[in-house]
Specification:
It comes from Prunus persica (Peach). By secondary structure, the protein is α+β, with helices and mostly antiparallel strands. It contains 21 helices and 22 strands. Strands 1, 2, 3, 4, 5, 6, 7 and 8 form an eight-stranded mixed sheet that branches. The chain has a six-stranded antiparallel β-barrel with strand order 14-15-16-17-19-18. The structure holds zinc ion.
Length: 698
């Protein structure tokens, strides 16, 4: 738009660009917001852009990202398990009712009630049981853009002018709401359900344009506000619902980049949306059943609740109880259920090679067949020392004998030897069964450990990454189960509960740092070497754009042999970050500050986690942490008082200097300088006559 012809409406106003670019002054912004009132005019300015992105995106592939990954929603679903939501006012079913005012009025009451039940349930479960909820719900009246309780608006004859329902910060001084205090808006529009039928059908511009209009209006109001938002306030969620279905639109961006030309409001707004915003659109899914009750556990309602959860965080800060905390209660609950139903016996299968056990966790719905409780799926193999396991790839079969069962992670894994080479020792991981399309939250860890890690190690191999500090993919494939395999020739699995279970085999083998620390076998010398070796692994991976995302004592092993100095290998690459959408593991003790705050890694994040690991290995004490808020608080206090540097300084000055360097880099966009630190660390490693063992390539 720079140098383009001005909007027709502004011709003759004499406004120059200079006045527009100085528009970040509040008065201009206020005027801009005051004039930005017509969603139709914004939508018209977006037509060309919308057409171009709709054409550009491949057929089957939607033009926008989704706001939430399925795995996040699954975790959230587990966290909500113990929470009860109740919508009292039923949503009228427009399919069977004629479109009348009475139906529309009830729909507005029902959507208010739905949002209220959602925000209240979330507030009490995650933030505070005792403090009253500081939010309220009301409807937006389009003539003055003020908020009214639906009941009151209907009584006052405003029904025809209601255009949205919002969750707002309660403010007795402004009973009709203020735009900077809007957490979230829901637009009730007919026929949203049409876009649920097939997922590649995109929302039309008429619907999306309106959502973008309201989102930008909220962002502008926030930029003028004196409120202190707890979290980044530059994203907004807009809900699109009809009387049965709904979806979520997320708009994110920095409104300071908007050109506040008050004579050109809609063009400037459209330009900002096109150039400076990120838009994400969820699938449209069912929210209310035919009786008008919300299906709280279903994905449609879950998406709405998760959006609301993020909105509350913007105003109230991190919750007292994290999603992880509440999701973790799922396991014990399930065990209680199993005990109650006496589903816990171990059984031995036909040929006695393997013993398998009911896994302690499994999807919550266990099918009950008439008179007997039948357990068909969900059997986790429990391999014993001495048992032999066969796996196959497309063109080979290999046997592995189990030497040792290890239990220091969430799931058992093994040290095994190839049948044809009993001297060799390898790590062997057993994955979750492929038939679990929507595995339990706990099983996701297993999926990361096996399936995802196989993918990452394969990519490393393909990209030619080689370092002795990185694990090597030795084999991967599917298990060959006992008995006849009757899988169809077209592929897939037979009925055997293990059929198709993926296996990953890696080298080298070593003891984990957590084990060394617990047995007080991790001293100062090990700390410096461990820091060097892990940093070297990170540097090699970073050269291919891969970051680890889950550094902790269980994921670093010390490799010893008769002829070499011991060295450390960074394992557990299942949570690695390959692209922007990947999320790192969340660990209250070892995650970086940025990961806890943003769910992403900055360039120093892995190094920060490494520093926490070294801190405890040098005798530093991690406090009991039970919330993200507490974890962030601990980090802030420890860094600002230089407690971490002091502790590491007791062990080695180079580690202290490294911690200072990491502290200075955290949260900034500057890249890590690996080479300089690898050199410094190397100088501090006792090389003796084993000097050649230290990899000087970095
Ligand atoms: Zn089979």
């Amino acid at each position: 738009m720079e140098g383009g012809s001005p909007d027709q409406g502004s011709v003759g106003s004499g406004t120059k660009r200079s006045s527009a670019s100085s528009g970040s002054r509040p008065r201009n912004r206020k005027e801009f917001l005051y004039r930005f009132v017509d969603s139709g005019m914004l939508t018209a300015k977006l037509e060309d852009w919308f057409e171009s992105i709709s054409n550009k995106s491949e057929p089957k592939k939607p033009a926008f990202d989704v706001p939430f990954e399925l795995i996040e929603l699954q975790k959230f679903d587990y966290a909500l398990e113990g929470i009860s939501f109740q919508q009292v006012i039923r949503m009228p079913n427009a399919v069977y009712a004629s479109t009348s005012d009475a139906v529309e009025a009830t729909a507005y009451l029902a959507i208010e009630d739905f949002l209220h039940a959602g925000v209240k349930g979330l507030w009490e479960a995650f933030w505070s049981q005792d403090e009253p909820m500081p939010f309220s719900v009301a409807c937006l009246y389009d003539e003055n853009l003020k908020f009214y309780q639906a009941e009151k608006a209907v009584a006052d004859g405003k029904l025809g002018g209601l255009c949205a329902t919002g969750i707002l910060l309660t403010n007795p001084r402004h009973p009709h709401g203020k735009w900077d205090q809007i957490l979230e808006l829901a637009l009730l529009r007919p026929d949203i359900r049409n876009f649920a039928m097939d997922s590649d059908r995109q929302l039309p511009l008429s619907v999306l344009g309106e959502a973008l209009f309201y989102a930008l209006r909220v962002l502008l109001s926030r930029s003028l506000s004196r409120l202190n938002y707890s979290q980044s306030s530059n994203s907004v969620f807009i809900l699109l619902v009809d009387s049965q279905y709904g979806g979520v639109v997320k708009v994110e961006g920095d409104v300071n980049k908007l050109v506040f030309d008050v004579n050109n409001v809609y063009e400037c707004a459209a330009e900002w949306i096109i150039k400076h915003s990120r838009i994400a659109v969820s699938s449209v899914d069912r929210i209310w059943n035919k009786l008008g009750n919300a299906n709280w556990g279903d994905i449609g309602a879950l998406q709405v609740l998760f959006a609301t959860f993020h909105c509350i965080m913007q105003f109230a800060g991190f919750p007292k109880h994290s999603v992880e905390d509440l999701a973790a209660d799922h396991g014990p609950r399930l065990q209680a259920r199993r005990a109650e139903r006496q589903l816990g016996d171990a059984r031995v299968n036909g040929n006695g090679l393997f013993r398998f056990q009911q896994r302690s966790v499994s999807p919550e719905i266990v099918e009950v067949q008439d008179d007997s409780v039948k357990i068909e799926t969900e059997q986790l193999m429990k391999l014993e020392v001495g048992s032999v396991l066969w796996l196959e790839d497309s063109n080979w079969q290999k046997g592995y004998q189990i030497n040792q069962v290890l239990n220091n992670s969430e799931h058992p894994y093994y040290i095994a030897s190839p049948v044809e080479d009993p001297q060799k020792r390898l790590f062997l991981y057993v994955g979750s069964h492929p038939s679990q399309l929507e595995p339990a939250w706990e099983d996701m860890n297993l999926w990361y450990q096996v399936q995802r890690q196989t993918k990452i190690l394969t990519i490393m191999k393909q990209k030619g990454l080689s370092s002795k500090y990185l694990p090597q993919l030795s084999a991967s494939g599917r298990i060959i189960h006992p008995g006849q395999c009757q899988r169809p020739s077209s592929g897939g699995n037979c009925d055997h509960p293990w059929c198709g279970t993926p296996i990953l085999v890696t080298s080298p083998v070593g003891e984990t740092v957590s084990q060394l620390i617990s047995e007080a076998r991790f001293g100062m010398e090990e700390a410096v070497r461990c820091c060097h070796d892990c940093l070297s692994a990170l540097s090699t991976a970073a050269s291919a754009g891969i970051r680890h995302g889950d550094i902790r004592p269980e994921n670093v092993v010390c490799v010893r042999s008769a002829v070499r100095q011991p060295y450390f290998v960074l394992i557990g690459w299942g949570r690695a970050i390959l692209e922007d959408r990947d999320r790192p593991a969340m660990n209250l003790h070892f995650s970086s500050t940025y990961a806890l705050q943003e769910g992403k890694l900055c360039s120093a994040s892995d190094a920060e986690s490494l520093v926490y690991m070294l801190y405890i290995s040098c005798g530093g004490v991690l406090p009991d942490l039970d919330s993200v808020e507490g974890a962030l608080q601990w980090r802030e206090t420890s860094w600002s008082r230089r407690l971490i540097q002091q502790k590491l300084g007791d062990a080695s000055t180079v580690l202290k200097a490294f911690a200072d360097y990491v502290d200075s880099l955290c949260g900034t966009p500057y890249p890590m300088d690996y080479d300089i630190w690898l050199r410094r660390l190397r100088r501090n490693i006792n090389e003796d006559d084993h000097g050649k063992e230290i990899d000087t390539s970095g």
